Prior knowledge:
The structure is a homotetramer.
Chain A: E1 3-8, H1 13-23, E2 28-34, H2 43-46, E3 71-74, H3 80-90, E4 94-97, H4 107-114, H5 122-126, E5 128-130, H6 136-147, E6 153-156, H7 159-173, E7 183-189, H8 204-207, E8 212-213, H9 221-229, E9 235-241, E10 248-255, H10 265-275, E11 282-284, E12 302-309, E13 314-321, H11 325-339
Parallel strand pairs in A: 1-2, 1-3, 3-4, 4-6, 5-6, 7-9, 11-12
Antiparallel strand pairs in A: 7-10, 8-9, 10-13, 12-13
Helix pairs in contact in A: 1-11, 7-9
Amino acid sequence: xxxxxxxxxxxxxxxxxxxxxxxxxxxxxxxxxxxxxxxxxxxxxxxxxxxxxxxxxxxxxxxxxxxxxxxxxxxxxxxxxxxxxxxxxxxxxxxxxxxxxxxxxxxxxxxxxxxxxxxxxxxxxxxxxxxxxxxxxxxxxxxxxxxxxxxxxxxxxxxxxxxxxxxxxxxxxxxxxxxxxxxxxxxxxxxxxxxxxxxxxxxxxxxxxxxxxxxxxxxxxxxxxxxxxxxxxxxxxxxxxxxxxxxxxxxxxxxxxxxxxxxxxxxxxxxxxxxxxxxxxxxxxxxxxxxxxxxxxxxxxxxxxxxxxxxxxxxxxxxxxxxxxxxxxxxxxxxxxxxxxxxxxxxxxxxxxxx
Amino acid sequence: xxxxxxxxxxxxxxxxxxxxxxxxxxxxxxxxxxxxxxxxxxxxxxxxxxxxxxxxxxxxxxxxxxxxxxxxxxxxxxxxxxxxxxxxxxxxxxxxxxxxxxxxxxxxxxxxxxxxxxxxxxxxxxxxxxxxxxxxxxxxxxxxxxxxxxxxxxxxxxxxxxxxxxxxxxxxxxxxxxxxxxxxxxxxxxxxxxxxxxxxxxxxxxxxxxxxxxxxxxxxxxxxxxxxxxxxxxxxxxxxxxxxxxxxxxxxxxxxxxxxxxxxxxxxxxxxxxxxxxxxxxxxxxxxxxxxxxxxxxxxxxxxxxxxxxxxxxxxxxxxxxxxxxxxxxxxxxxxxxxxxxxxxxxxxxxxxxx
Amino acid sequence: xxxxxxxxxxxxxxxxxxxxxxxxxxxxxxxxxxxxxxxxxxxxxxxxxxxxxxxxxxxxxxxxxxxxxxxxxxxxxxxxxxxxxxxxxxxxxxxxxxxxxxxxxxxxxxxxxxxxxxxxxxxxxxxxxxxxxxxxxxxxxxxxxxxxxxxxxxxxxxxxxxxxxxxxxxxxxxxxxxxxxxxxxxxxxxxxxxxxxxxxxxxxxxxxxxxxxxxxxxxxxxxxxxxxxxxxxxxxxxxxxxxxxxxxxxxxxxxxxxxxxxxxxxxxxxxxxxxxxxxxxxxxxxxxxxxxxxxxxxxxxxxxxxxxxxxxxxxxxxxxxxxxxxxxxxxxxxxxxxxxxxxxxxxxxxxxxxx
Amino acid sequence: xxxxxxxxxxxxxxxxxxxxxxxxxxxxxxxxxxxxxxxxxxxxxxxxxxxxxxxxxxxxxxxxxxxxxxxxxxxxxxxxxxxxxxxxxxxxxxxxxxxxxxxxxxxxxxxxxxxxxxxxxxxxxxxxxxxxxxxxxxxxxxxxxxxxxxxxxxxxxxxxxxxxxxxxxxxxxxxxxxxxxxxxxxxxxxxxxxxxxxxxxxxxxxxxxxxxxxxxxxxxxxxxxxxxxxxxxxxxxxxxxxxxxxxxxxxxxxxxxxxxxxxxxxxxxxxxxxxxxxxxxxxxxxxxxxxxxxxxxxxxxxxxxxxxxxxxxxxxxxxxxxxxxxxxxxxxxxxxxxxxxxxxxxxxxxxxxxx
Lengths: 355, 355, 355, 355
């Protein structure tokens, strides 16, 4: 018996990745895919990869089938989720929200960075933060409430915060990081991170054979990273765009606390492996190895590499993910698995194309 | 109860794609992966996509475990299979050969194009040609022999012949093509088609932002295409290299026979759909649509587009495949499925990454 | 003393390539660059490559400075040139038109393919066709008229016709090609060929790692190729899109006339070198070599490779150009050089980036 | 009257870029290009971009023509220059060395990072460091000695140090940077940075659609950056590889000194423009803008973008260059221009391909 699932915003890049994953998931049955822009069109005509495989047709966001779903995934732009989440929860539908609307603990921070007032701040305290390897208790609590019949809300982490935090959070939690000084996050994303809407910037001829930083000091994932790491006001986050489709690499440089200046890369690897014991999607590489995004693209895996610069007193922690899978749709399905009491790996790809 | 499987030449691109598919296959269990160059190394260290997923280690080609397998897949260069196939068959092991060694019906043609004498021509008459949608009877015959306890041999079609023939063979078989005049095959391949060995030509800085034809009038897939299409001496095959990893597009221009000059694209599509009825991997697009390699990469699908130039009297038939999957490893697993009496789709990916 | 030059449509890809070339040209001085969409913006803000190099600002197409120019280059969409060319000529301005509006000899063919009536067909008979290596006399005639004080019109060849015709025209003119049967043109273009306007098709995530044919049997360069080659109704032209920015490769397969069945590749190369003697931009490679687009990108060169399939009776002629340079802006400047009595090479790049 | 020039190691990527630039240079005449691996081959056969343009042929490194040159450019691997530089200088030939052998002031540091003893440390004190915008006096001193008849030595900066230092040095020199804490350099290079030798890592199928860090904490450009910036032991340098050919982007995050905490991006831009006044290759962008590598590739330009994170107390300085031009060959020619008393811009490309 499969659970009925819906995807709102299914024609965007994160949305269609949800469709890919849910069509192959043994425990969820995809009942509704919505897209106001593509309503009435067949999934296979918008994404020919589904030709001969699925007969699903996009409907509008007000499709009444959504209210009959056990779970709805929201892959809509920020602020759009604010309008939908309270209704769905009120209808008894569990919501896995991929937007930024319920991620930040403090509605004032949300207003500062997103420029709009939060209209349902009371839901923030009840939601779980969707980054299972770092907020397991949060999700376990939700799974209990769901088992008891509640409709619950998961606010999934963003793509940059996921790679960055999986790389940096254990060091922070283990007390290795100095109390002061910048935490430098230089991350590189493939172009799918810029979304599906055509623009001058995402034109092949602009993006190909080019490297650039963007939104320097004002990317909205900054407060989210600071919240997860507990490093308020210290994160210098510079995202970069590179000419590939999927893949996100985050290189985090953390100043070591005086007491941690003797740390070696081997120590760090051992402690990280302890911290992630039992979490099959997070793979900490041996000291001296560095992750490649090509090794995780298409899968829900995150690979982490660690190095220590003893002279400068810094830990370099690098995380690689597929921004659309572990950084969006895959993580959302992983969260849904946990909330519905399934193995978190259920229905999720473990291996990238090896080449 | 899974069948024991081995892959010889498992560290090459087709080989590792076999490993990817077989690790996920519910009815085959991968027992041995061999690579003389990488023997002793872990699969995950050569292909980090498998880190945390598989503990397999490469062995040498003389691994005795191979003789204990139910099926061995050979992903070795041409002529290397000549040395191995007879032994494996003699040991009672069914062989699915991805090399060119047993593809050509006539050993003299093999000698002319490959420059070596064929040492086991008697096996050619017994083998099936591994292109299931066009040689179904051949494989059905082998499945019967296998069910009766025989070790059998499949010689899988090459990548260019697969895309080209799936696009062009129905037109030939339906008598639409003139008896004379060149059959023009202009095909484009991603760089995985050139294999894993680093060279000046496959260096990123040579292949990126470049288009070129290669092996003009002397590519070894020419006689194979002519054999499948029954167009001896008429195929002008020009392969091209383009800057992508996986994907192969073959555009075939066929002169129409006088009796077929009234053919429309809509007719052609309808007849092709009949010809491929029940073959779920081949998807004939509506008239006016053209296939994209990105719509099939990672899957075992082949998409076909058809157009007619009435004035010039030509049918344009275009086939798109993933050269490593439907053009190599996926087709090999599909053949193995059939020989072992399984559904041909078993364990094979149906859908590409949609983006 | 430099000639005053203007570019209409200077913000598009061909337009900005004209700007690049004219800024470096010793005999033309760029006085006006127009773009209705970007009027008022600095060149350097739309194309940051010019930051610190040029202070030019885009004006609108009705910039009165155009009438004061010695030559105006039109890089506008087809039909837009119809409205502008007669006025400019009447003002005494020589026009080099990169659009398709004055290319076709027969206005009825123009109407059939472009869907609009031609409003100044009388200018077609007077214009020269801008493909200097094949229409030298045409341009020489114009240079004489220009020297005598006339404002004249050049209709530059399109990108696909340029590469295709430079590869195929000598064979046609030398009588090597059979009188019947399709002339097959399978060409591949980089994404700049699709223009600057962002669209789903030119989005990096659609174009990257993808190959596709498009506009099969209905690309508007078909009648232009047929006109140049004198092969009316015989050209089967299938353009393809590949993931690179600049570069165009055209592979032409020509059926050999009975009297030419003994032709060798070496013969063909020798005859082509004769045919192109003294034309420094066309470089015919040795038999056995094939051109690479990377070897010409950024320059005005065209490389040609030739092969013969004796058994099938076909000549394979392959041309490689930079679609924005020799296929558009470079060729336009080359034509202007000739019309103004300069060496055709003046101000034009001879060498691609070698890597 | 042109100066006679030679290039040792002319078949590598930096070497052939030198060839491209010197062939177009009005004041240098290229007399000898050497490559032990490709000796005897024509330049045009190794790099077909030169077909029809140059008849130069590679000779071996011991070509006696080198001793007759006015200047020789060395594009050889580190340690190989040690063997050649003293001889050439003794023959009266001025040397512009692109290798790392004479860059580091302290031979002990050289030995620590390169693993070999320095055999001519006395030459280090006499050489100029080849990064003209930061070491103008050094090069002016050499120009004087050269004008007086001396053969002199320039040790050109590496690619990462060039982009990094042009972005960060003014901030250091102006006293904006805190005395303690890591200086974080996260830089991204195209694949030409890895050199011409084919390897698993530079195979198109490994590098395409992939991001990775490499040589973390042990890249040999680290001590060079520390030397230029005067930040010994403080630089945490993490180079990354991305799928493009040419282009290098360095993002430097510098902790602000207490007295500089009020710095704005606008202030920083104004001061940088002062610092680089009159240096036409360095272009400091307006606050809020970020450099793109595509805007400089093919030219000798460096674009710099600046941002301030007031809360975290950090300056973000980003430099974009073409690693083969401003990061190697172009800078070498710029240095030679200065030493020979020419305008530093002579013969150097100012503008990238705009698209």
